[in-house]
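Review form for a predicted model. The reviewer records the input and the model, then writes brief findings.
Reviewer: anonymous (R2)
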Amino acid sequence: MLDRAAAVNAVETVARRARPGVGTPARPDYDRLFAASIDALRREGRYRVFHPHRRIAGRFPQSVLRTPTGAERTITVWCSNDYLGMGQHPDVIAAMKAALDTLGAGAGGTRNISGNHEPIVELERELAALHDKPAALVFSSGYVANEAALSTLARLLPDCVILSDELNHASMIQGIRASGVEKLIFRHNDVAHLDNLLAQLPRERCKIVAFESVYSMDADIAPIGEICDVAARHGALSYLDEVHAVGMYGPTGAGVAERDGVGHRVDLVQGTLAKAFGVIGGYIAGSAPLVDAVRSHASGFIFTSAMPPVVAAGALASIRHLRASGKERMALHQRARAVALRLKAAGLPVMPTESHIVPVLVGEAAACKQASDRLLDVHGIYIQPINYPTVPRGAERLRITPTPCHDDAMIEALVVALRETWTALGLPLASGRRP
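Model under review:
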């Protein structure tokens, strides 16, 4: 199997072969070098294909797929991060339409240069209230929120060290790298290992413990209270990514920390507006000095255009609805349990899950892509393959995300389609045998 180093070697080989002779132009063949890196991905079965489709308002999770020949067919999406279907909720759509009619399309600039419009100010107040924190700050995406906040906070704190869960999201890893500070990696959800690492550091040294609540690929949940206990005992700041939990856990949808009654123990919460809340954007919530420091120093916030009012209005409507309504959350978890049980009963290799995400193990990149393609081509079911580097090699999987909008008939169709796909491709079942 090719890894990143092998892909780089392939590019370097092409570069050596492309070196010009005496008297010829020195310009490299850039496209050929780029193509070599893509060829390496194709040979390993990790080349990503984006399927063009259009969602059908009022019929989520159904969508219309446009095939390479230009034909169209209706498909059922089983890999959407619109976990609650709020992207098509009437309240959200109505709020966005009203904002578009009254405020127009764009924000007009950065937050500092004319972009500090009323909906985004109201949205930050709502997010702070959701997490019971004094302040919140909105970013263009959850990725940017993590990268900007982690890199900024670590740079501002003297002699800071970041302790990061080994399975943290790429955006957190990038933020830690960008900070340039010392980092220590603790084993996934291993509180004892974290405690041991912290114990070796002076209590007076600035420390940030960065972790997630719901890990979206392994579908497990962090012991937030225990991690906060350890962080507090050693004088560390706790940084919790609740991207895959906000809207879906807790009495008001504030996340797993709220569900577990430990939200007040978390120093900074990072979340997204692009998953359960159904629109786009990211945010942080924490103490007023912390949030103001990020607002005042983070280039990822300062030098980018503000979220458009129409998006902020939709996010605000979604959060307010989910804070008051628990029926979507209840339906989500009921559907997720039903899917996991049905797939297990069918003998499929469902990976252990503590959350609303149902991963099914394939274990090989090319086979994972083949399974995804067959589900779409033969059964009209869209589940994107999850391959390295998103998950380790040998742990390739299909990541299924049930929603309240997936009905019983859709679940039965999914079970039949997956079983047929496993049989057709000879993939191993949960028992280890091949059908």
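Findings: The two ends are 26 Å apart (CA to CA).
Further findings: The longest strand covers residues 72-77.
Recommendation: see findings above.
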